[in-house]
Design a protein that fits this description.
Layout: H1 2-12, H2 19-38, H3 45-56, H4 60-63, H5 66-77, H6 79-82, H7 91-100, E1 106-109, H8 116-125, E2 134-137, H9 138-141, H10 148-157, E3 166-169, H11 172-181, E4 185-189, E5 202-204, H12 210-217
Length: about 220
């Protein structure tokens, strides 16, 4: 979808690029992004788009108008809106229950090809964004999990302390090891028979079980 939209937008702007060239450029940008992400760093969506354009033609970015670049950036984030992810059916009730108890909730998320601005729209569409006091996305901060800095940024935003905070996530490295390194307690969402060897403080199968798991950590 991204490659097709890029082909259409560039042609309309008077700078046509063959589909095959764009496909190769898209793959090349993925390799570059992977190298950035391995260092636990991230870049904004503008850099994603620029990487594709440079891989197609090094001079192409400088030849495009600001309006064309904006159209390409919008097209780059659009696929997740067309094919949205599946939502945990227990998420909204669990988040509302925790917020009702006075918990300050924040999103700490690595982005891939879909930027944080689009992920906020998806959260809003499902009625989840209103549950969070703050959202931290790696493409906007420039730092990715498991780097403790992204967790600490969320804690600063909600005036929280690592020792009393709880991070909830599924990945044994990004979420469990990352949050532990940040000094937080961790609840891992996992359907595996055995939890992560990194040592989460609790393991749940789905988010419906989250309020009770938080109670367990706090001795409730």
């Amino acid at each position: 979808m991204r490659v097709g939209d890029f082909e259409r937008i560039l042609s309309a702007a008077g700078h046509p690029v063959p589909r095959a060239v764009l496909e190769r450029a898209y793959e090349a940008s993925g390799a570059w992004l992977a190298s950035v992400w391995r260092s636990h760093r991230d870049v904004p969506v503008q850099e994603h788009v620029a990487a594709i354009l440079r891989a197609a033609d090094p001079a192409l970015p400088s030849r495009l108008s600001a309006a064309t670049l904006r159209a390409l950036q919008e097209a780059y984030g659009r696929p997740a809106l067309a094919v949205p992810p599946t939502v945990d059916t227990g998420a909204r009730a669990a988040l509302q229950a925790l917020r009702g108890r006075g918990c300050a909730l924040a999103v700490v998320s690595n982005t891939m090809r879909t930027p944080g601005a689009v992920l906020r729209r998806l959260l809003a569409h499902y009625g989840l964004l209103e549950c969070f006091a703050h959202t931290v996305f790696s493409d906007e901060l420039g730092v990715r999990k498991p780097d403790p800095a992204i967790f600490h940024e969320a804690l600063r935003a909600v005036e929280g302390e690592p020792a009393t905070a709880v991070h909830v996530g599924d990945d044994p490295v990004l979420d469990v090891q990352g949050a532990l390194a940040a000094g937080m307690r961790v609840i891992q969402v996992s359907s595996a028979a055995r939890p992560s060897p990194s040592g989460p403080h609790a393991v749940i199968r789905d988010l419906a079980a989250l309020p009770a798991a938080v109670d367990g950590l706090d001795g409730g």
